[in-house]
Write a structure and sequence with these properties.
Blueprint: H1 2-19, E1 48-50, E2 54-60, E3 66-71, E4 79-82, E5 94-99, E6 102-107, E7 117-121, E8 129-130, E9 144-149, E10 152-158, E11 165-170, E12 178-182, E13 192-200, E14 203-210, E15 214-220, E16 228-229, E17 244-249, E18 252-258, E19 263-268, E20 275-277, E21 285-286, E22 294-296, E23 299-305, E24 311-317, E25 322-325, E26 333-341, E27 344-350, E28 355-360, E29 368-371, E30 380-387, E31 390-397, E32 401-407, E33 414-418, E34 430-435, E35 438-444, E36 450-455, E37 462-466, E38 479-480, E39 492-493, E40 499-505, E41 509-516, E42 524-527, E43 539-544, E44 547-554, E45 557-563, E46 571-572, H2 576-579, E47 583-590, E48 595-601, E49 606-612, E50 620-625, E51 632-636, E52 639-646, E53 651-657, E54 665-668, E55 672-680, E56 683-689, E57 695-700, E58 708-711
Antiparallel strand pairs: 1-2, 2-3, 3-4, 5-6, 6-7, 7-8, 9-10, 10-11, 11-12, 13-14, 14-15, 15-16, 17-18, 18-19, 19-20, 21-23, 22-23, 23-24, 24-25, 26-27, 27-28, 28-29, 30-31, 31-32, 32-33, 34-35, 35-36, 36-37, 38-40, 39-40, 40-41, 41-42, 43-44, 44-45, 45-46, 47-48, 48-49, 49-50, 51-52, 52-53, ...
């Protein structure tokens, strides 16, 4: 047990260092500040993070009581948002969540009874306000189970035992905060104590207590008519079947309930007929708790008690819909980090005592152990990167912590490159990016903080490239420009063979665009887009022809930019309709001749696909999408394939566009839940379900006739397909 706790501590330290350079912020210098985000669901007790930048939580500075605070990870960016109850009184903000560009929470200003009310904030004092209309007379609404569904927050209110529970929704405005249904009516069995809300692709599931049935499973599509009871099980028990562990998996809800014989595993598609027990031939009983199941590799993991009362770890295989006791098979179990290095596939797997490095050429005989670098110890692998004929990766062992390693596919050729942060401390190498024969990456040597490093795969050739933020032990935290400080993603190499990445610099402030050619002199700021201490946060970089396009902020607006890697060659594409459209840009990809931008319009609550040739006139909407769930976009040569769930037809649809109205066509809506879209040999390959919910592997050449099933086979949606040896 002591070894197990050591492992948890080491991993937590390692991941914390990888994520960012942490500073101790003493909010309350006289006693504890207790920063927290209390929620009823234990698994959700985390700070709320908006735009992957700012965290929101409750804290007490010893002067103002427990109030709403925010932090961007810097001392200057850590402060109280609003003193809701002036002086030393406590407003007790709780259930803090993010939704769209705002946060929602419950708090008490003592103006409407003794309980909490619904509040929202844009992160400023002026923009932090109580939403009116929820409270009843002098009673507090006590909102709970705040749940985001694509920019709309759903929640329960409970005014007391005499009024029961209600289901509400809010878009952050008073007018948009509306009651959906009052459960304390005869039509709903005088329901109260609604709880455990779970979002499954826009459909809500929850438990509700009624007078005659106790706690049962209910569902809602956000309308009164679409709010129905799904189970009527164990009604002879006062508490009913008491659903628990509500967990969304692949568009379905998995949960536990008491069927009168014990706690069993159930599944629901949102219909009464589709709410059924999972196959349980061995007659296992679930171990009850109040946190969701753990989902991994399409398997749902949970604890069970056998008929002879032995506790075991079990899993539900989603393909066979059957409960099985977990058995570690040893050699080759749990493959992860699958990476193609010059047509050799490297991966990690459980060898019976620890995780080790393996390789395969796609045959049984060619699948072999490369090296068990730390037999029986703590082993953790990440950031697998192909570098010509070698694999470079970050690896944690008990001796060196997280450091940079390499492998040529042999045991002798698999070694640590350099112990950058000597001893058991971790350099936390991340964002490994191969550029012109060398690797650029972020690392911390314990002296300079997290900075930009370079390696040719040798100890002598691994060194600090440039200390971008050279204030005492501060970090510039270089990271790839494909999201807000998203570690583990690749950096982007421009058409001119320059690395583009984000970094913080004391001169230019937070995240701006930098470039590097692998030399200190060639590593510098490209352009200070948003001058001052705030950054422009460049992201979603794609290459098209001779330029690189990306999204960045300027004066509070997100715009499309283009760069050739120089200051003079970095400019915005002026598209007023897109620049100032209410909403935000979701992502951007490029085919061989056009950019495609997915946006969300917060006025229409629809996603849109735009196309651009890099000019203002050549940038316009290709398709309006009636969906709330986002879009899967995959470029294939000069065509863009995209799939989404159409909320008008309630079907999954696969489309193709060449950037013109006439060339935008529906290819298929006979399958559902398209995933793992990948381009190969001028075609699209995808996984989906057919009309009978059988797993399929399909392909499309961009025509309806050429969109077809290749084979009935299950494809794990946790793994991105890898192309190797022409397959």
């Amino acid at each position: 047990m002591k070894r197990f706790y050591s492992l948890i501590i080491l991993l937590c330290i390692s991941f914390a260092v990888r994520a960012q350079n942490f500073n101790l912020l003493d909010i309350n210098k006289s006693t504890d500040a207790y920063p927290q985000n209390y929620q009823q669901t234990i698994a959700k007790n985390q700070f709320a993070v908006l735009d992957n930048i700012v965290s929101y939580f409750e804290a007490n500075d010893g002067i103002h009581g427990g109030e709403l605070w925010r932090s961007d990870g810097t001392p200057g960016g850590t402060f109280m948002v609003k003193d809701i109850v002036p002086g030393q009184g406590w407003s007790n903000p709780a259930d803090i969540i993010t939704s769209g560009e705002r946060i929602f929470f419950s708090a008490n200003d003592y103006m409407q009874g003794p309980g909490n009310e619904l509040w929202t904030s844009d992160g400023t004092k002026a923009g932090t306000k109580k939403l009116s209309g929820v409270s009843s007379d002098n009673s507090s609404a006590n909102p709970t189970d705040l749940t985001d569904v694509n920019g709309t927050v759903y929640f329960f209110t409970d005014y007391g035992s005499s009024t029961g529970s209600e289901l509400w929704k809010s878009d952050g405005t008073n007018a948009g905060t509306q009651k959906i249904v009052n459960f304390y009516k005869s039509d709903y069995g005088f329901g109260n104590s609604a709880q455990a809300m779970e979002n499954v692709n826009g459909r809500l599931f929850f438990a509700l207590f009624t007078k005659n049935n106790g706690f049962q499973l209910w569902t809602s599509d956000g309308t009164k008519a679409g709010t129905i009871q799904l189970t009527t099980i164990n009604t002879g028990n006062y508490w009913g079947c008491t659903p628990f562990n509500l967990t969304a998996v692949n568009g379905l809800l998995y949960f536990g309930l008491d069927d009168g014989t014990g706690d069993r595993l159930y599944v629901s598609d949102g219909t009464i007929a589709g709410t059924q027990p999972v196959k349980n031939a061995a007659d296992f009983y679930l171990i009850r708790n109040n946190i969701p199941f753990t989902v991994r590799y399409n398997n749902i993991f949970f604890g069970i008690n056998t008929s002879d009362n032995n506790g075991e770890l079990c899993k539900l295989n989603a393909t066979g819909n059957k409960i099985e006791v977990v058995k570690f098979l040893g050699y080759g179990n749990d493959p992860d980090n699958i990476t193609n290095v010059n047509n050799t596939i490297f991966f990690t797997a459980w060898n019976g005592s620890d995780y080790s490095l393996f390789k395969t050429d796609g045959t049984d005989a060619g699948t072999v152990l490369v090296k068990d670098a730390n037999p029986g110890g703590t082993n953790w692998y990440t950031n697998f990167t192909a570098a010509k004929n070698k694999l470079l990766y970050s690896y944690f062992d008990d001796t060196n912590g997280f450091e940079l390693w390499e492998s040529d596919g042999t045991e002798a050729g698999t070694n640590i490159v350099k112990d950058i942060y000597p001893g058991i401390y971790s350099c936390s190498s991340n964002n490994l990016t191969y550029v012109n024969g060398f690797i650029l990456f972020g690392a911390n040597d314990g002296i300079n903080g997290q900075e930009l490093w370079k390696s040719d795969g040798t100890a002598a050739g691994t060194f600090l490239l440039k200390n971008i933020n050279n204030t005492a032990t501060s970090s510039s935290d270089p990271f790839s420009a494909n999201g807000y400080n998203t570690y583990g993603l690749q950096g982007i190499v421009s058409p001119s063979n320059q690395l583009l990445f984000n970094a913080t610099n004391v001169q230019y402030g937070n995240d701006e665009l930098f470039t590097s050619d692998g030399t200190a002199a060639g590593t510098h700021l490209v352009k200070d887009i948003n001058t001052g201490s705030d950054g422009s946060y460049p992201q979603y970089f794609v290459n098209l022809n001779s330029k690189t396009y990306f999204i960045a902020e300027l004066n509070g607006f997100t715009r499309i930019w283009q760069t050739d890697g120089t200051n003079a060659g970095t400019s915005t594409i002026s598209v007023p309709a897109l620049d100032y459209e209410p909403g935000y840009i979701v992502t951007m990809v490029a085919t061989s001749d056009l950019l495609y931008i997915e946006t969300f319009n917060s006025s229409t609550y629809q996603y849109e696909i735009w196309r651009s040739d890099g000019t203002s006139d050549g940038t316009y909407i290709v398709q309006y999408l009636s969906t709330y769930y986002g879009v899967n976009m995959t470029p294939v040569d000069d065509k863009l394939f995209f799939s989404y769930f159409d909320t008008n037809t309630y079907t999954w649809e696969l489309w193709k566009t060449d950037g013109s109205t006439a060339g935008t066509n529906l290819l298929n809506n006979a399958y559902s839940n398209y995933y793992n879209l990948v381009a190969y040999n001028n075609k699209l390959y995808f996984a989906a379900y057919d009309a009978s919910y059988n797993y399929i592997l399909g392909t499309s050449n961009g025509t309806q006739a050429g969109t077809k099933i290749l084979k009935y086979i299950y494809v794990d949606n946790n793994f991105k397909p890898t192309v190797a040896n022409g397959k």
